[in-house]
Give the backbone structure.
Amino acid sequence: MSHALKDPHCGIKDLFDSLWDEQIALGLANASMSNQDADSVLITREIKHYLRDFPYCEKLVLRKDVKNNAKAVELRNLGNKMFHPRVKRYIEAIKYYNESITYSEKGSKERALAYGNRSKICLELRQYEDCLENIRLARESNYPELLAGKLKKRAKDAKLALEKASKKAKKDQAPARRTHEQAERQLKLSYGAHENMPQVAKYLQLQRNDQYGRHVVTNHRLNVGDCVMIDKPFVTVLDDLLRYVRCAYCYEEKIFTLIPCEGCSLAMYCSEECLSKAYQQYHRYECAIIRDMWRISGDVPVIAIRAIALAIAAFDHDVQKLKVHLDGLNEAGVNAFSMDWKAVTPKDIYDTVYVLTTNQQLRRRKDLAFTIFFATIVHQLVLERTELGSICAVDTNTAKLLFDLILRHLQIAQCNRQWLCFMDYKIENMCNDSEGYATGCFPLIGMLNHSCAPNVKRITLRDGRCAVIVIRPIAGGGQLFDNYERHHLKNDLEDRQTSLQNMFNFRCACEACVNDYPKLEKLPDMDCEIISQNAKSSFLSAPILHIFLPAQIWLLFEKARSSDSNLGYYGHNVGS
């Protein structure tokens, strides 16, 4: 037996590889494969059979997420070390205090002390309103009476500081123009919009053929800098590293005043309103399993489960209504570019996400088996730990629907998730760069195909929408190409081909791969005058023209600034 099967802390991929080599592959070796769909059914049946008595929860250390006051004390002590006068790493301390709050039981001394410690840091950092809010939270959480004097003095100091700041602000007050100026600078489409699609330039069209599948083209020349699409994600998930920094619902950076979900030790929110909205829309179905999902496989299963939860919510939390809808859905007839987005419903938007590519037909047998293996485990955890279990217990068809949705959305998330980003100042480079704060799936941007020499770039706006900006001229009739993390200026041909095949199951045949465009450091040092002279010759129509001017354009957008937007990071979406 392999090491993975002996090791109770093995990863899910290691566990699957062991089972595949030792059992699953043998069981499938003599099975006939008439088509890919039939093979999927067979693999599903075999994997469910193997997992029925296999202790996968023990092997993967899957366990219910419960509050733990002892863990909360441990984390608060780590925060105290960061807060020490000789250390003064206040933000690190706050992160530990926030995590301590998520592990602590409601109304416990442990939670109250963490709120109290947070208030002290707020006072040190002159965040006086946040200081008072933490004092309120600490008192509501039964702050120890013996220490109450500390809170009272801290509250008095914060109020006095606020009064001084208020008087100074009135004295130095200048006309408020920021809101008006921001409204004037909001990013807008560069051309008129479709009649029923205000978020898409009228020149864009969705087409389908055997070579490219579904793809987006323009019937009019597009120039560098044109904004041609502003799409809103159907589902988003906060980055795991920011769970104790930003609100898990609205993603606002509210590190000093986050409050916890009472059902898990992971999600935090900036207000009771955000907490309530998250629970009603999706968290009720993910709360009991979200920590395990993050731990064993990152954001993919979290996005999948959240997308399913949002779908159920769109049908008034009636799984049977969702099933009836999907049973009657003509997938081929779902066209995001022909919908009336002015009157669209959450159900309509879900349909556009439901039909995003899964690439299941392109997956190798072992890769498909792993996804089914993972879906089976997630499905079982959902049945055991969430309210969906009782619903499925009385109807096997509903249980099968849930499994099918999990399998489908795991594959959709693998192929279509993409980053939402903010600008972060890099001290070592003395410049701003993009940092992902969440991942999501977009119904319209998901239609864009890939190129290692893209002609558009995604930019995340402050409200979470994503703008598509042209970075290379596109002639009428040309296709819009996005980039899936592998750009020829950063990655060589072999790396791109291997990575794209492993991640998305296709061999890239874009212009950069066909012509083997060089990486940035291999570009010749040519000034604009030389480029202009060459452009007058037949060089103008040569593929290598991309290497010079567009390379500069691409770098320009890497350093772009926008009062309305944050720079988009290379995402994971795969066109259909």
